[in-house]
Amino acid sequence: MTTPQDEAWDYAEQLLARPQRRIEVTLARGEAETRLLHDGNAMVICPNDDLGRTQAQLVARALGIPLPEVGESETVGVSSGVLHRVMSISTMDPTDEDIWPLFARLLEEAEAMRANVSELEE
């Protein structure tokens, strides 16, 4: 039996199979969890516990947006490269101090990719 997160991963893998310059995604924060959505389909699900909240904050940083308040959402367009970094970040355990250099690297790469797309759109 598949879990909601397994289904979200399957959807994300299909979406990211074809590189795209701009994909509209929404980070929606609810009482129980924060979800990264594309066309209403979940790509990432972060439960509302200490671990999940930290993951949601990291996902928001990678997307270049603030973590929405409970009951609110934020929509942004990013490249598939940024989304690959977001997906990687969402699977890592932020309680493992040894992984933080990798978080820093992925966040740095996502920021650089967002900046490059912004420069091309000007």
What's this entry about, in short?
The protein has helices spanning 4-16, 50-63, 80-91, 100-121, and strands spanning 23-29, 33-38, 41-47, 73-78.
Characterization of the model:
This protein is 50% helix and 21% strand. It has a 4-stranded antiparallel β-sheet with strand order 3-2-1-4. The termini are far apart. The chain is built from 4 helices and 4 strands, in the order H-E-E-E-H-E-H-H. The chain is an alpha+beta fold and 122 residues long. Strand 1 (23-29) and strand 2 form a beta hairpin. The protein is globular.
Helices and strands, with pairings:
Layout: H1 4-16, E1 23-29, E2 33-38, E3 41-47, H2 50-63, E4 73-78, H3 80-91, H4 100-121
Antiparallel strand pairs: 1-2, 1-4, 2-3
Helix pairs in contact: 2-3, 2-4, 3-4
Keywords for this entry:
about 120 residues; alpha+beta; four-stranded antiparallel beta sheet; 4 helices; about 50% helix
Alpha-carbon distance between the two ends = 47 Å
What is the overall silhouette? globular
The Cα radius of gyration reads 14 Å
For the largest beta sheet, what order do the strands appear in spatially? 3-2-1-4
- Stretches with pLDDT under 50, minimum 5 residues: none
Could you tell me the number of beta strands? 4
Question: What share of residues are in beta strands?
Answer: 15-25%
